[in-house]
């Protein structure tokens, strides 16, 4: 309870909850718009998370939840399941189902719609993803395994150890898919994509953004914006693209060069125990080694993103 990633003392979950409530009440009293409130609360979450060494509010609140589970468990059987990046379903309830834009899906949406032409990261680095139905199955099997006995188990549900996928694979899958099946925009025209340019460090990324977007944008600002409607449209479109890319980089910066591999040895032991018990593992499948990533992304995940998220 209260242990932090950077060693800074003073983390108090009740105090953090009060800080969030006070900020929200303040914004509402000021008559801030729902959009402004959402953004301000996200910014506060990042600020509070950074104070104690976490990169954002999402992982900060997950860490605090695990602290509470550990503190309050008593004699209750406790299981913590930690999925990595959760992607669309592999099989159930049907292949490719997803709901809402999250994690790498936002990159796919931006790229397929022509808004994202460059990004940042290490193409050789492993990116740990796992389909949603495998996460659910792992949770069900873990509950059965530990339901009637005291336990204090942690299961990493991911693929980086047993079936690693690399950032370069995602770049390749995206280019191949949207080249052969381009997104049709609201004007009814196919959006042509090139292979996404991936910069290998922040300095090269900032240089690229400056020469490719920021300098031309500044030139448009200095020009006479009363020229014509199309002139203003070019400016607005370029400005939106810049803001979109910069926001994504800010969100994903802590993970873009992450070198860690999540050890799923405990989860593998759970799979082995389930098989030995005679349970129907074809029904409760959660083995990432069974995934052919090329087939999954080209025939399941990306088509699912287009079908259930793009529209």
From TrEMBL:
GO BP annotations listed: long-chain fatty-acyl-CoA metabolic process; suberin biosynthetic process
Signal sequence coordinates: none
Which Gene3D superfamilies does the annotation name?
Answer: NAD(P)-binding Rossmann-like Domain
- Ranges for the Fatty acyl-CoA reductase C-terminal domain? 213-311
Which UniProt key words apply to this protein? Lipid biosynthesis, Lipid metabolism, NADP, Oxidoreductase
Q: What class of enzyme is it?
A: oxidoreductase
In short, the EC number is 1.2.1.84
A GO term for molecular function: alcohol-forming long-chain fatty acyl-CoA reductase activity
Domain Thioester reductase (TE), residue spans:
28-139
Which reaction does this chain catalyze?
Answer: a long-chain fatty acyl-CoA + 2 NADPH + 2 H(+) = a long-chain primary fatty alcohol + 2 NADP(+) + CoA
InterPro entries on file: FAR, FAR_C, FAR_NAD-bd, NAD(P)-bd_dom_sf
Among Pfam families, the record links this protein to:
NAD_binding_4, Sterile
Q: Which PANTHER family match?
A: FATTY ACYL-COA REDUCTASE 3 (PTHR11011:SF99), MALE STERILITY PROTEIN 2-RELATED (PTHR11011)
Query: What family is reported?
Result: Belongs to the fatty acyl-CoA reductase family.
Tell me the function of this protein.
Catalyzes the reduction of fatty acyl-CoA to fatty alcohols.
Name the chain's protein: Fatty acyl-CoA reductase
């Amino acid at each position: 309870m209260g242990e932090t990633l950077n060693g800074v003392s003073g983390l108090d979950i009740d105090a953090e909850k009060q800080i969030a409530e006070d900020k929200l009440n303040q914004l509402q009293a000021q008559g801030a718009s729902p959009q402004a409130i959402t953004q301000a609360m996200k910014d506060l979450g990042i600020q509070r998370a950074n104070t104690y060494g976490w990169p954002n509010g999402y992982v900060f609140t997950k860490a605090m939840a695990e602290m509470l589970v550990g503190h309050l468990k008593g004699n209750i059987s406790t299981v913590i399941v930690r999925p990595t990046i959760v992607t669309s379903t592999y099989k159930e309830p049907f292949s490719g189902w997803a709901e809402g834009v999250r994690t790498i899906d936002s990159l796919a949406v931006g790229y397929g719609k022509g808004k994202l032409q460059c990004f940042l990261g290490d193409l050789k680095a492993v990116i740990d993803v796992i389909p949603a139905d495998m996460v659910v199955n792992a949770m069900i099997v873990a509950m059965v395994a530990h339901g009637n006995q005291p336990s204090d188990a942690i299961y990493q549900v991911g693929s980086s150890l047993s079936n690693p996928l690399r950032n370069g694979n995602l770049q390749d899958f995206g280019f191949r898919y949207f080249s052969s099946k381009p997104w049709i925009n609201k004007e009814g025209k196919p959006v042509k994509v090139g292979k996404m340019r991936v910069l290998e460090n922040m300095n090269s990324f900032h240089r690229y953004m400056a020469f490719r977007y920021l300098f031309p944008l500044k030139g448009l600002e200095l020009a006479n914006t009363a020229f014509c409607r199309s002139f203003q449209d070019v400016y607005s479109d370029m400005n939106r693209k810049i803001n979109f890319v910069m926001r994504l980089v800010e969100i994903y910066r802590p993970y873009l060069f992450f070198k860690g591999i999540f050890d799923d040895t405990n989860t593998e032991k759970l799979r082995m125990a389930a098989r030995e018990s005679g349970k129907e593992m074809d029904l409760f499948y959660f083995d990432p080694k069974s995934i052919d990533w090329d087939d999954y992304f080209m025939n399941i995940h990306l088509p699912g993103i287009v079908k259930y998220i793009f529209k």
